[in-house]
Amino acid sequence: MTSDKAIISILQEQIKTYKMFHDLLNRERTCLVNIDSEKVDEISKVKDTVIMKLRLLEEERQRLIKHYAEENGLDIDVNLDRLGKLTGNSTFHEMRSQLLSLLQSIEEMNRFNAILIDRSLNHIKTTTNFFNLFRKEHNQNSTGVLLSKES
């Protein structure tokens, strides 16, 4: 397989994996809205695995582009746009657009999910503080004497 074909193959796998990650974020959003912490935890574990795969794919893509640049006597800084111009293959431009679109969508979903998580945590803190008010009044170490402050 020529190195530009190998790069296309890796890019296709990256796109497929980013779509999978996007779907996970959608499922996570639904679970956050439904306050299903067990499912959120399960999705989090799957996300960790997908992120690891994406890192490996990115490392391989960078290695292949570097190899392609060395084979063709180019400087090391070759991006997908330039690769498309050099090879005359419009697939690189299309895949670049797909990746950018997916990454923007993932960024938005991550931001929204982070807001949902933050709101949930604030709700939990408020609820915990509310219940702690009652716990302090009925502390077992208490002597049962209620003191009042008079001005």
Explain this structure.
The protein is mainly alpha-helical. It has a single domain (3-117), classed as Methane Monooxygenase Hydroxylase, Chain G, domain 1 (Up-down Bundle). The protein is built from 4 helices and no strands. It has helices spanning 3-33, 37-71, 80-87, 91-137. Helix 1 (3-33) packs antiparallel against helix 2 (37-71), helix 1 packs parallel to helix 4 and helix 3 packs antiparallel against helix 4 (91-137). The protein is elongated and about 85 Å long. The termini are far apart.
Outline:
With 151 residues, the protein is mostly helical.
Q: Choose one word for the global shape.
A: elongated
- Overall pLDDT, averaged? 86
Number of DSSP helical runs: 4
CATH topology: Methane Monooxygenase Hydroxylase, Chain G, domain 1
CATH class: Mainly Alpha
Query: Alpha-carbon distance between the termini?
Result: 88 Å
Q: Percentage of helical residues?
A: over 70%
N-to-C series of helices and strands: HHHH
The largest sheet is: none
Based on DSSP secondary structure assignment, what is the total number of beta strands?
A: 0
Q: Helices and strands: which structural class?
A: mainly alpha
Tally the structural domains.
1
CATH architecture: Up-down Bundle
- Provide the low-confidence segments as ranges: none
Percentage beta strand: under 5%
Backbone CA Rg: 26 Å
